[in-house]
Design goal:
32% of the residues lie in helices and 23% in strands. By secondary structure, it is of the alpha/beta class. The protein has a single domain, classed as Spore Coat Polysaccharide Biosynthesis Protein SpsA, Chain A (Alpha-Beta Complex), CATH 3.90.550.10. The strands form two sheets. The protein has a seven-stranded mixed beta sheet with strand order 5-4-1-6-8-7-9, with helices on both faces. The protein starts with 6 loop residues before the first strand and ends with a helix.
């Protein structure tokens, strides 16, 4: 890979959302939700350009004002049931580059330093062909049928001694054009699992997620103001 800033960030942002209405443009800590991730990516030392795939004029204007590039989503890709694979496939027909980072506007707490660490880890990988961010959990999990997943109820091990369960948190994916074209997916055959702090990895799917992200962002902003005084 040539140059430090050699990664293209891909960010899908629909106008409508079901569980949290209009969440991408809803104010979080005083500004539209989508602006947080755009500024994070632009502040990364590894990201060369930020490309937002959207069907929203409001989002498009904001992205261009901040310095990102807009791709208008084709009508056939605007349904609520469309997953990331055809969206990424479309984006790759419209943008150049060999390495891509995909994230979402619903990850406002992601930090530029974490983006840089993820890209560095991807570049340093030997056996892995992509990177996927995860959140570590060490709790007693059960299936919907009541079967223990990661523990023996009769042993009652301490939670800190349990085998960790890693959750795909949708914060970050780093992959090459070649891997996507071969697998049709942002996750290849041998992903590198990159752990992110749970408070940074909040993903807004439900109303309570939005409230949590709002509280965490306001705390972060207050801490930043205190450090500047």
């Amino acid at each position: 890979m040539s140059g430090a800033r050699s990664v293209t960030a891909l960010v899908p942002m629909r106008a409508k959302s079901e569980r949290v209405p209009n969440k991408n443009i809803r104010p979080l800590a005083g500004r539209p939700l989508f602006e947080w991730i755009i500024e994070t990516l632009l502040a990364s030392s590894c990201v060369e350009s930020v490309v937002v795939n959207t069907d929203s004029e409001v989002i498009a204007r904001g992205v261009e004002r901040l310095g990102g590039r807009v791709l208008w989503r084709p009508p056939e890709l605007r349904g609520a049931s469309i997953d990331m694979r055809p969206l990424i496939a479309y984006d790759l027909t419209q943008v150049e580059g060999d390495v891509f980072l995909q994230t979402h506007g619903t990850n406002p707490l992601l930090r530029p330093a974490t983006v840089d660490l993820a890209v560095t880890a991807y570049r340093s990988a030997v056996a892995e062909d992509c990177l996927m961010s995860v959140t570590r959990h060490q709790s007693r999990f059960y299936s919907a049928q009541g079967r223990p997943i990661n523990h023996d109820p009769m042993q009652l091990e301490r939670t800190q001694d349990l085998e960790p369960v890693l959750e795909e948190n949708s914060c970050l994916y780093v992959f090459s054009r070649d891997v996507f074209e071969r697998h049709g997916h942002r996750v290849g055959a041998h992903p590198l699992l990159f752990e992110i702090d749970p408070l940074e990895a909040v993903d807004i799917d439900e109303e309570h997620d939005f409230q949590l992200a709002e509280a965490l962002m306001r705390r972060r902003l207050n801490e930043t103001r205190s450090d500047d005084e």
